[in-house]
Every structure is written in structure tokens, then in C-alpha cells.
Amino acid sequence: MTGRALITDVQNTWCPGCGNFTIQHTLKKILAEMETAGRSLDDVVLVSGIGCHAKIADYLNINTFYSLHGRTIPVATGIKLANPDLTVICCCGDGDCYAEGLDHLVFAAKRNVDITVIVHNNRVYGLTTGQYTPTSPLGFRGKSTPSGTAEFPINPVELMLASGATYIARGYTKKMDQLKVLLQGGIAHWGFSFIDVLQICATFFPAADYYTPRVYEPADHDPASFDRACALAREWDYNSDARIPLGVLYTAAFPGFGERMATKAVTAGEREEAVRQLLASRI
Amino acid sequence: MKIDAGLFEYNDRKVTSEIRSCGGGYGGWHHANVYTCTCITVSCGARMTEIKEVSVLIGGRAGDGINSAGALVAQLLNHLGYRIYLYFDYPSLIRGGHNFAIIRGSEHEVGTCREKLDFILALNQETVDRHRDPGHAGTAVIFNADLARSDGQGISLQDILTSEKAPGIMGNSAIIGGFAKAAGIEWETVETVFRRHVPKGIDLNLKVARRAYDQLAVARRIEPCSNPPLPLLNGNEAIGLGLVRGGLEAYVSYPMTPSSSLLHFLAGEKEKLGITVVHPENEIAVILMALGFAYGGKRAAVGTSGGGFCLMTEGLSLAGMAEIPLVLVVSQRTGPSTGLPTYTGQSELQFVLHAGQGEYPRLVVAPGDAQEALLWSAIAMDIAWKYQVPAFILPDKTLSEGTYSVDAAGTSLPSTQAPPAWDGKPPYLRYADSPSGVSPLAFPGAKDAVVKVNSYAHDASGYTTEEAEMVTLMADKRLRKQEGLITGLNGYHQVNVLGLAEAPVAILCWGSTKGVCSEAGTTLGLRVVQPVVLAPFPVTRLKEALAGTTTIICVEENATAQLAALAQQHGIIPDAKVLRYDGRPFTYESLCARLKEVVP
């Protein structure tokens, strides 16, 4: 379908000032450019989890699989293996992807499956009205932790470096032009792409005043350098006060899961013959 | 047939049960022909007597290759025209425990073991100590004389291996060669079977087998039957081939006994069959990945056991809500929790019937043997796609890891019907309402289709809704598929009637106990009714099958009689329950004894 309206008529229920608008608008622009460049949007699938971020499945007029909390990545992996011609994008939340579904994230990176994972990392559960997530800072006072969390956040960028992701970037919803470049780069990258997007939750974690003065784009960074990427990943640990590097932190070219898993298709006749031979071999 | 009393003394068996057992007990066996079957001849010294079947036990330590040695014995009997059932018993460890396989051959179909053994092949002393019944003089024992002492004939495996400079694992070939001689099997048959089924080092294995063959004397001759040999498949292999015949394109599974051999089988054959096989990080990923495959247009199945299925239930409910076709193979073992990983059980029926939050139709089938597994796995895949529902195949350890003769020619393919496809006119509505409740399918990549599936309550387009009227409409649409499902199933043989079809006392059983129930039922003069389909519950067919009964005895391998509870919900009230839940399948003898306690 060419020239389609990319935003559906479904009523948008994100809070005013929510960073999800930025991500949706960025994706919309990217989709429009893909179509202009000749890519049929019939071949694009977006998989979402459950949480505020996931409403994007209702709002974007493309193929979507509105899945379960934490389960975007295995669904996306199955879709990509089923039809390698599809462009498969996961929109997940930080509670979604770093808590409930962390194992899937690590394994998708390990496999280098050719999907793009965009984490709407607002560092708080919004839809369940304000509890801490795996990236909330130590001492975060949420509804389930009124005296403050007793645990340090994880650093998902460092985790992805350790897990084998071949495109690792960090974006920020107040830096939309850069975000578009990062997401586009991830979609274009052949292999597992991970973009941690620092997203403002206007209601439960309005952290723009913290992020804006601290974010920066490292000059002359060579994303092919794993050691340098590790250093940048560790510069900010999602907890201590530090500068926050944005941009493509790491890229690498490795063979992907899909091509290694691919089995040559057989015709129905060949398959029936194979079954017949298998049965005959058991005599 | 001549009946020689000496046989029955010799075998320490009761005449009546011995004769009736000749029927093997599967469908089609009636009193009328029980006495006309041809029997095999066993020679015992100077006495020539007749029996109709043979049971062989081979045992040793875990790691001795008992399962593959048992498979070779099964093939020897197969090539003599016997129908086979092989039961493999092993503890949940890699090395050191006691493993044994019982291979039962009969001129007619079999699906269970007998306790009385004609041959024991003992790779160690423990096999003799555990299985040699001193009260049963008829057993011929062939043992590894290096490690065991017994009556019967010993072979020094070490001497043979040293003479042939053969590795230790080939000791099994010596035992099998010795067995072949003791059973009076022609050397040509041994050579044929080895050449077909020994994966490597065939010539050396044959030399090892031949040395033992030449050392031993005939103890009990097994005469050939007139049947042609048939393919031998374990239940999981039959399920795998059935799924492939139903159009399987992707199999996703995390290893869990007793489902793992299905994963191994399909992974080993994936290139030939043109399927993708994935072993992901856990069972949650398994089912979600399979749903991704199905959304992408590929027919997918998952396999696990009860514990792994616990992790799949949120994905199951998603399949129900999002109307994504999926086949789930849940092979039962003894529970709860880790339970007995390598032993059997039938305790997941009620779990599978009710698993997953919310209400949506599902198919549950429990094949009774490999032949039914081959057929019903194809049907399950077909139905899952036709009605866009989850379809369960519910075997257990006995079926999954038991080996059976399979007559594939007797398993006609179901009429595969493609699910209704979208007509290509936008807008595509993934959940378009219809009289049947089934919506036309399109897959991402289809021109001008925007394919939206959703775990939330949704409208016809797949957009999230909380609007009361739409929620009700879509719930009704999903549940309406059940009506078509029931009608569609009426085209299949959903309930088996075995044993003595007109008898007033009926055994009601399901799944892998089909074989043992049918055999015991034939002996004891009972009707045996086995529903293969358990959801939607085939109540009409079941009532027809039970018509005229005065007593219903439920036989199940669980502690709470789960089929009995299900039947009771539908107005069928069992009078007695015969339950076993120690992880071991009923044997013919144990079931007969238990039935006699309750048969009026």
C-alpha cells in the first residue's frame, strides 16, 4: 500500500509531554522515507510488548503484533525466521525488555538475529502508575518502593556489549534528529540492533532536567572499537552523576542467526518422498 | 493350532490368557478368531511347543547403549514378521544407573509389555538379579560372562572384543549375535538387520556378532511370522512425521524429557523435510517464537512436558486471544514438579484442558499408539489452522519413547483444507466477523494488507478496544469457532471401541494405555472405549460407544482419575477407577489383576 496514512485514527492516550510521541513521530518519518526509497511498507512489521510504549502498535498504520509484556523479541525472532524479507522492529519498554523479558534480549543479541530493538527507556513503569524498573536509579521512590529502591540499576548498554549485539546505540527523546539517525542506522544494520532511548515520562519520571545538560555526542568515536565502546558504556551507569554519551556506540559485522538457521525449502512432493524414505529406513 | 500342555508348564502361564493374548488385543480382535491365529514355535531342547509371541529384555548400565541394542533386537523380530512394542526404562542420569528395554513381538499388533520374559540379555549382573524370575523356568538367559553369573548361556564379551580388536561399545553386538543364535534366527537375517541399522563399523560389528553366534546353541527358536516387516517408530517420531504431513514448517522446543526426542528427531531430519528447527532460551521464548512463525505464515509446533508447559501458558492464552494457529505437543511424565523425569504419567489432562487465562476453544487429542500419533498429529495441525486455535497432542513417556510397528499405508492423510484466505481487497480486517467465527488469514508481506494481531481485547481491525459491545462480540466470535470445530471433528474417528465391543462392562481409558487396556479387555471379556479426542469432548460419540454398558471402569495413570472427572462433567459416570501413578505403565498382568478386583 503506497501513500498510506501512517498514523491510525485510534485515539492517542499518551500523557502530554510523553517521550513516546517523539519515538512515534521519528518512526513515522523513517517509514515515510523508506517508502519514498522504494521499500514497501507491506514488508515492515512492528512488534510491541505491554506498557505505555506498546500503544504505538495501535497508532502506526503498519503490520503489528501487539504481544505480551516482555515478549516482543521471541515473537520478532519467529517472524524474521518465518519471512526473512520482512523488516522487523521491536518497540519495548524498559520494564518490558529489561525485567520481564531480559533473557530474550540477551539471547537475541547472542544470536545476532536481524531485528531492531528500540527500548523506550523511561526508567519507570508508567501504565501501572509508577513503580521502579531495572534502570531506575538507586533509591528511586515508586509505589512499590516508597522508601526508595534498595538495588542498583543495570546498565543495558554494557549488557548488550557483553551479549554480542552488533549495533548498539543510545538516543534521547529530546534529541529527535539524532534519534532518527540512530533508528535508521539500526534498521539498516544487518544483524541485531539495539537502541536504548532515554525517554521522558512526563508523569512519573520527568528527567529532562537531568538528561539535557549531561548528554553529549562523543567526538571522533570509532564504533568499531569494542574497548572504546565499553569505556563509553561505562561512563554513565544509569545511577551516578556523569556525562551521558549518545550516538552509535558500537557496530560490528557478524553472520546472523537467520542465515545460519535457514533450511532450504522443499516441495510438497519432495517432502512426502522424504517421509516415505524415512519410514522405509525404519524397516 | 496344537495346544501342548507342556508349553504352559514350561512357560508357567495360564492357558486361557495365553491363548487370548494371541489376539494382541487391538481393534478388530474378537473371540471368534482368537483361537485361529497361527502361533510361533519355540523349541526347547527336545520339546517342540508353540507360543504366539516373544518378549525379550535387554539390560545394562546407563551408557551401555541399551536403547540402541533394544532397537536392533526389535528390528530382528520385525524382520521375522513380528509386530513390535518396545518399552525403554531408564533413570534420569547419564551413566551408572540400570537401563533396560523390553521388546515384545507378536504376530498381531501390540502396545504393551508382559511381565513374563522369553529371553533376558544381561550385560551385567544387575540385569539378572532384577529381572530373572526364578519361578519362570522358561526364560533363556544370555549374559556377559565377564560381569554376570546366571543360568543360561554366557559369552565373554571381552574375549570376543579382544580377538576382533573391537571397541567396548561393540559388546552389544556380541550379545545380540548370541541372542540371534539362541533364538534360532538365521544368520542372513542378522546380517540384513545389522547392515540396515548399525550406523557405523558394520563389518566389525558383524564379526563380533558372528563370534557370539557361533559360540551359542539354540535355546528357544522363534519361528518367522508371515507378516512383512513394518517401519518401527517411537511415538515422538510418529508425531514428528504426522506434523510434517500436516504441513509443519517450523518446530520450536526447549529440551525436556520425554519430549526431547521429538526435537532431536526433527532437528536431525530438518534438511530433508525442509523445516526450521529452533531451540531457544526457554519455553516462554519457544511458544512466543512459534506464534511469530505462525503470524509470519509458517505452520509451527512446539514440544515440551508439563513443567515446560507451565511456562507456556501465557503464550497459549495469547494464541487463544490473537487467534494464532499453533500445535503444542505436551508429553507427560510423572509429576508434580520435576517428579520422575524419565517415567510416565497421565496427570496433565485437566491442566491442558484448562491452561491459560480466559476462555477460547482448543483441540486436545491423545493418541494411543504411534500409528494414531502419526494420523492425529497431521489432523491437529490441519485443525489448528482451519479454526485458528491452539491444538494439543498429549502423549506420555510410554508413547513418546516407546517403539511401535507403524503401518503408514493404513494412515490416510487428512483432507488438508487451507484456512480461508483474504480476498486481497483492502482494508484487511484480521478479526473480521463471520458466521463460523473464523476470519480470513493474511500474512505480513501480503500486498496492501495491514495485519494487526493483538493480545488486548480488540476490534475487527485488531485495534485495542475496551468497548463493552465489541468485547462481547469478539468473545462470541472466538467461542463460535468451537461449533465448527465440533462439526469438523465429526468427520474423524474420535472414539475407539476395542476389546469385546458388545460387552456390558467397559474400560474407559485414554492415551497410551490403549494397548494394555485393549489386551486386558480382550482377555477378561470387557469392552474398551478410548476417546482419542478429549476437547472438544466427543460426548455423543462416547455415549454411543458406551451404549448398553452396565459398568464403566476408568483406567488411568494418574492419582485422581482425570478422564473420569471429565466424563462425569458430561453425564458419564464411571463406576470404578483403576489408577496407577508410580511412573510405570500398567503391564498386561498388573492391569488384569487390578481389573479382576473391580469387575462385577
Walkthrough of the structure:
The complex is a heterodimer of chains A (283) and B (600). With 283 residues, chain A is an alpha/beta fold. Chain A contains eleven helices and nine strands. In chain A, the strands form two sheets. Chain A has a seven-stranded mixed beta sheet, with helices on both faces. In chain A, strands 7-8 form a two-stranded parallel ribbon. In chain A, strand 5, helix 7 and strand 6 (193-198) form a beta-alpha-beta unit. The termini of chain A are far apart. Chain A has helices spanning 20-36, 56-59, 72-82, 94-100, 102-111, 156-163, 176-188, 208-214, 226-235, 257-261, 268-281; strands at residues 44-48, 63-66, 87-93, 116-121, 167-172, 193-198, 215-216, 244-245, 247-251. Chain A has one domain (20-281): Thiamin diphosphate (ThDP)-binding fold, Pyr/PP domains (Rossmann fold, 3-Layer(aba) Sandwich), CATH 3.40.50. Chain B has three domains: 5-215, Pyruvate-ferredoxin Oxidoreductase, domain 3, CATH 3.40.920.10; 232-491, Thiamin diphosphate (ThDP)-binding fold, Pyr/PP domains (Rossmann fold, 3-Layer(aba) Sandwich), CATH 3.40.50.970; 495-598, 3-Layer(aba) Sandwich (Rossmann fold), CATH 3.40.50. Chain B is 38% helix and 18% strand. Chain B has 21 helices and 23 strands. In chain B, helix 18 (514-524) crosses helix 21 (588-598). Chain B is globular. Mean pLDDT of chain B is 90; it is low at 1-49. Chains A and B meet through strand 1, strand 2, helix 3, helix 5 and helix 11 of A and helix 10, helix 11, strand 11, helix 12 and helix 13 of B.
